[in-house]
Amino acid sequence: MPPVITAVGNQKGGVGKTSTVLGLSSALAALGRKVLVLDIDAQANATSTLDAVGEFDMYDVLAAEDPGMLGQAIVSTAWAGISAVPGSKQLARIESESMMTPELRLKNAVWQVAELDDFDDVLIDLPPALGRLTLNGLIVADRVIVVTEPASYSVEAVEKFLETVSAVRRRPQLNPELRLAGIVVNKAHTPLTNEHAFQIGQLKGAFADVLRLPILPRRAAVEDAASAHQPITSLPGEGAAIMSQLYRAHAQWMIEEAA
User: Fold this and answer.
1) Half-sphere exposure of 31 (CA within 13 A, CB side)
2) Could you tell me the pLDDT band of residue 68, with boundaries at 50, 70 and 90?
3) Burial, 141: exposed, middle or buried (Cβ in 10 Å; 0-12, 13-18, 19+)?
């Protein structure tokens, strides 16, 4: 049975997209799912946090003429139940290099790689931009999750990002089956500031049917986990325990949504 492929992104950087990918991945793995993280962000923060090192990376996958390169680029990580295809700074070249239908490279690879059937979930860490790399991720995904801070610029970026999602869905040769699985609010202050409460209210008004709860608060444990290169589920302390429970709640709706 093929895995569920989930692209995670936002046009704006700094919203905690990568930390959310890693939190969801570790929560899914803790629920017994086998997870593959595809890092197509040139910053490669997910790669460094997972300590994912291999002979090939996502640039090789997208630049190669051989779709089998994706299978060769999959590496295990120190995080139980999680494998990865590493990202690299070379991915920035994808945006400028001339390639034959570059936005279809990842989709063609996924269609032809039997190794993906070993996984239950594939999470794609998209770059904070709307270029070729993001298109590659959206075209291959079954669904997309948008991560946003409850701040005005981040909320505005949600709408722009969803315009790109809609454009991908409108073109039959791209991905008309792509669905918006949810919008996840991240880095909220506790208790909520007036601004955060207002922006969350705006999101509820515009996206009530896909705004996914619980809201993820700003917690030092998330940065501690990234710094330690460990899943937050393995960290001691109340903050880590709270965040682990919240990520688990999101992982559970992800599993249910895909059923």
Assistant:
1) 22
2) confident
3) buried
Q: Given this model, what pLDDT does residue 98 score?
A: 55
The answer to whether residue 100 scores a pLDDT higher than 80 is no
Highest mean pLDDT range out of 31-35, 63-67, 104-108? 31-35
- The SS3 assignment for 250 reads helix
Give me the mean pLDDT over the 30-34 stretch.
Answer: 97
Report whether 184 contacts 147 (CB < 8 A): yes
Give me the helices (H) in the chain, please. 17-30, 45-50, 58-63, 69-73, 105-111, 132-140, 152-170, 194-207, 220-228, 238-258
Region 109-124: mean pLDDT is 84
Provide the 3-class DSSP secondary structure of residue 38: strand
Tell me the pairing of strands 4-9 and 35-39.
unpaired
Q: Tell how strand 82-85 and strand 75-76 pair up.
A: antiparallel
Average pLDDT over residues 154-160: 92
Domain residue ranges of the chain, discontinuous segments joined by +: 4-258
Query: Of 49, 52, 10, which Cα lies nearest the Cα of 224?
Result: 49
Quote the CA–CA distance of 4 and 142 in Å, as a whole number. 6
Does residue 245 sit in helix, strand or coil?
A: helix
How many degrees, rounded to 5, is the angle at CA 9 between CA 228 and CA 82? 45
Q: In whole angstroms, give the CA distance from residue 44 to residue 20.
A: 14
As a CATH number, domain 4-258 is 3.40.50.300
